[in-house]
Design goal:
The complex is a heterotrimer of chains A (about 160), B (about 350) and C (about 100).
Chain A lengths: L1 H21 L4 H21 L3 H25 L15 H18 L14 H9 L3 H22 L6
Helix pairs in contact in A: 1-2, 2-3
Chain B lengths: L1 H17 L11 H36 L15 H10 L11 H19 L16 H9 L2 H11 L3 H32 L4 H11 L7 H14 L25 H25 L11 H4 L2 H25 L5 H29 L4
Helix pairs in contact in B: 1-2, 2-10, 2-12, 4-5, 4-6, 4-10, 6-7, 7-9, 7-13, 9-10, 9-13, 10-12
Chain C lengths: L2 H21 L3 H25 L4 H31 L13
Helix pairs in contact in C: 1-2, 2-3
Classes of the chains: A mainly alpha (about 160), B mainly alpha (about 350), C mainly alpha (about 100).
Chain lengths: ~160, ~350, ~100
C-alpha cells in the first residue's frame, strides 16, 4: 500500500514538472523543472523495483545531462536575465497531441488482464546479460559514445584550436 | 541505527503510556511513524554535531600549522566557538537582491544541503548502526553526491551578478571533471569486494585486509578527487577568498550562508567517511584489542570516527601547505593526469582478483 | 498500482514532450522536450520489465540512458555552433533549406 501511495505521488509530481517545462517564461526555469523531472523519474524507477537503473538515471541524467543543458542555456544567452515573454497558446497543436495521447491510452485499455505484482530485478541478472549475451551491443555503445564525444568537440572548436 | 530504533520505540511507548494511551487503540501507522521521526532527529543531530566537531578540528590544526593558536576563548579550548558563529549568523539580516530571481535564489542552497543529507543517510557507521542497509547503497551515495553542480549553477545564476555566474560555471565544471576518477576508483574497490553494499565491503576488508594495500594509487586518486569535489585548497579557485569574494555564494547572507558553510564541511565529512569505509577498513579493529573494548557497536563507532578525523587532519595538512591551482591547470590535472592513473588502478584491481590473492 | 496506470503516465509524458517540440521557439527548450520524450520511452521499458519479471527491459533502459546522454551532447554542440554563426537560437532563423 505504501508503494501504491509513493507511485501516485511521484506520478503527480512528474506531471507537475512537465507542465512547468511547457509553461514557464524563462529558459533557466525550464532547465530547473526538467532536472526535477529527471530526479523524480529516478525515484520512480527505484520504487518500481529496478534500483540500479534508478541510481544510474539520477547519476547520468540529474548529474550530467542537466549540467550540459545549463551550459547550453548559459552560452547562448545575451544577457543574464532576459525580458519575460508572453505565453502564446497554440490550440491546433494541442488538439493534435491530445488526440494522439488519447488514442494511445485508449488502446491500452483494450487489453483486460494486466499484472499487478512488482518483481525485484537484481543486478546479477543484469550483469550476466550485459557481459554475456549482449556484449556486442555493449562494445558498440562504447564506440557510439566515443564518436559522439569526438564529433561534438570537433563541431564546437574554433579556427585555431586543437 | 537498529539499536537506536528499538530504544526510540521504548521512548515513544513510554510517552504514550504517560498520556494513558495504549498503542493497540491507535491506527497501525502511528507508532512506526513516531519512532522513525525520533530516529531521524537523532541521526540528524549526530551528523550536525559531528560536522561542527570537524570544523573545530580544522580551525585548531590550521592555526597550529600557521604557527598561531586558534579558537581559544569560547568554551574550554574553543569547543563552543562554532556554535557561537552559528548563532551569530542566524541573527543576521537575510537580504534578497531585488533584481534576482527569488524562487531560484531561495531554492539553490536548500537543494545543495538536502542532496548532501540524502547521501549521508546511506552511510553505515558501525555494525548495526545504519539508517538503511539496501544492497546498492554505495551507488546511491555517489548519485546523490553528484547532484551538487546543478544547485551551484542555479545559485550562481539566480544572484544576477556576473561574478557569481562565472564562479558557478567554474565550480560546476570542476566538480563534473573530478567525478570520473572518483567513480573509476570506486569501481576498482567494488571489483575487489564483490558487492555494492557498504557493510559487505567493510566485512570483506575484515577478512582479506585493507584495500589501501593493493590500491594505493587508487587511494591517492580518490583523496585528490574528494579535495576537488568539496572545493578545498589547492582546488579552491571557484571560491577564492581573495579574488572572487565567495564565488557562487556571494549574495547569500544570514541563515543561508550558514547552510552553505555547513554543507561544505558536510561534504568533506562524507568524502572522508567514504575514504575510510572503502579503503581503510571502516569500523574493524585490530584483533589484539581486548574483548571488553570491542564487544559493543559503540566501540566500532568511536574507532570509525577516530579514523575519519585522522583522514580529515591529512586534508587540513594539505590545505596548510599547498598554493592554489589555476583553473586551466586544475582541469588539465583532472582529465590528463588523474584519469590514466585511475585506469591503471582499475587494471591492478582486475589483475589482483584474477590471480586470486585478495578475494 | 496496476500496470496500466503507469503506462498511461508514460503516454501522458510523451504527449507533453511532443507539445513542447511542436510549439517552443528556443532551440534548447526543443532539445529538452525531446529528452522528455526519450525519458517516457525508457519509463515504458522499465515498467514492462518490473511487472513481468523480465530483466531485459532493465538492460535496454541502461543502454538507452547512455545513448540519450550522448545525443544531448551532440545536439547542444550543434546549438552552440548555430549561435556562433547566427547570433540567435530562435528556430525561425534555420530557414536556409526552405523554398
Amino acid at each position: 500500500m505504501i508503494t501504491d501511495l509513493l507511485l501516485l505521488l511521484l506520478s503527480f509530481f512528474a506531471i507537475f514538472f512537465a507542465v512547468g517545462v511547457l509553461y514557464s517564461r524563462e529558459v533557466v526555469h525550464v532547465v530547473i523543472y526538467i532536472a526535477g523531472l529527471f530526479i523524480d523519474l529516478g525515484g520512480l524507477y527505484i520504487v518500481l523495483s529496478s534500483p540500479y537503473v534508478g541510481a544510474v538515471q539520477i547519476f547520468v541524467y540529474g548529474g550530467a545531462v542537466t549540467v550540459l543543458l545549463m551550459f547550453g542555456v548559459m552560452l547562448t544567452k545575451r544577457t543574464i536575465k532576459e525580458k519575460k515573454e508572453k505565453i502564446v497558446t497554440q490550440f491546433d497543436y494541442a488538439v493534435i497531441v491530445a488526440l494522439l495521447v488519447s488514442l494511445y491510452v485508449g488502446a491500452l485499455f483494450s487489453y483486460t488482464n494486466y499484472p499487478t505484482e512488482l518483481y525485484y530485478i537484481g543486478y546479477y541478472s543484469l550483469s550476466n546479460n550485459m557481459f554475456g549475451t549482449y556484449i556486442g551491443t555493449f562494445v558498440l555503445l562504447g564506440i557510439v559514445i566515443m564518436a559522439a564525444v569526438i564529433g561534438g568537440v570537433y563541431i564546437v572548436k574554433e579556427e585555431d584550436q586543437l | 541505527m537498529i539499536t537506536v530504533y528499538s530504544e526510540s520505540k521504548d521512548i515513544v511507548l513510554y510517552i504514550l503510556n504517560l498520556l494513558h494511551i495504549t498503542a493497540s487503540t491507535l491506527p497501525w501507522y502511528v507508532v512506526p511513524t513516531l519512532t522513525s521521526i525520533v530516529v531521524i532527529i537523532i541521526a540528524f543531530l549526530f551528523t550536525v554535531l559531528n560536522t561542527v566537531m570537524v570544523i573545530w578540528v580544522e580551525r585548531k590544526f590550521l592555526g597550529r600549522f600557521m604557527d598561531r593558536r586558534a579558537a581559544m576563548h569560547v568554551g574550554y579550548a574553543g569547543l563552543l566557538q562554532n556554535f557561537a558563529d552559528g548563532i551569530k549568523l542566524m541573527r543576521k539580516e537575510f537580504i534578497i537582491p531585488s533584481s534576482s530571481d527569488k524562487p531560484a535564489f531561495l531554492l539553490s542552497p536548500l537543494l545543495y544541503i538536502s542532496t548532501t543529507l540524502l547521501a549521508i543517510a546511506f552511510l553505515p557507521l558501525s555494525w548495526g548502526f545504519y539508517l538503511n542497509n539496501i544492497s546498492f547503497s554505495l551507488i546511491l551515495v555517489t548519485a546523490f553526491f553528484s547532484l551538487a553542480p546543478l544547485s551551484i549553477f542555479i545559485g550562481g545564476w539566480a544572484s544576477n551578478n556576473k561574478y557569481t555566474l562565472i564562479g558557478g560555471m567554474r565550480s560546476a565544471a570542476q566538480m563534473i571533471a573530478y567525478e570520473i576518477p572518483m567513480i573509476l576508483t570506486i569501481i576498482s574497490v567494488i571489483i575487489l569486494a564483490g558487492s555494492l553494499n557498504l557493510t559487505q565491503i567493510v566485512t570483506a576488508q575484515y577478512k582479506t585486509g585493507w584495500y589501501i594495500l593493493p590500491l594505493f594509487i587508487g587511494f591517492i586518486v580518490f583523496c585528490v578527487s574528494i579535495l576537488a569535489e568539496v572545493e578545498r585548497i589547492p582546488f579552491d579557485l571557484p571560491e577564492a577568498e581573495a579574488e572572487l569574494v565567495e564565488g557562487w555564494g556571494t549574495e547569500y547572507g544570514g541563515v543561508y550562508f550558514a547552510f552553505l558553510m555547513l554543507t561544505d564541511y558536510l561534504r568533506g565529512y562524507v568524502g572522508s567517511a567514504l575514504a575510510v569505509l572503502l579503503f581503510l577498513g571502516g569500523w574493524t579493529m585490530p584483533t589484539y584489542f581486548p574483548a571488553y573494548l570491542t564487544a559493543f557497536p559503540l566501540a566500532g563507532l568511536i574507532w570509525f570516527l577516530i579514523k575519519v578525523y585522522i583522514v580529515f587532519i591529512i586534508f587540513v595538512w594539505v590545505r596548510a601547505s599547498l598554493p592554489r591551482v589555476r583553473i586551466d591547470q586544475l582541469l588539465s590535472i583532472g582529465w590528463k593526469k588523474l584519469l590514466p592513473l585511475a585506469v591503471i588502478n582499475l587494471l591492478i584491481a582486475i589483475a589482483v582478483v584474477s590471480v586470486g590473492v585478495w578475494a | 498500482m496496476n500496470e496500466i496506470v503507469m503506462l498511461s503516465l508514460s503516454g501522458i509524458l510523451l504527449g507533453m514532450g511532443l507539445y513542447g517540440v511542436l510549439t517552443k521557439k528556443n532551440l534548447i527548450v526543443v532539445i529538452a522536450s525531446i529528452e522528455i520524450m526519450i525519458n517516457s520511452a525508457i519509463l515504458n521499458f522499465v515498467i514492462f520489465s518490473s511487472y513481468n519479471n523480465n530483466p531485459s527491459g532493465d538492460l535496454a533502459a541502461l543502454f538507452f540512458i547512455a545513448l540519450a546522454a550522448s545525443e544531448v551532447a551532440v545536439g547542444l554542440a550543434l546549438a552552440l555552433s548555430i549561435f556562433r554563426k547566427r547570433k540567435s537560437v530562435n528556430i525561425d532563423i534555420l530557414n536556409l533549406l526552405r523554398w
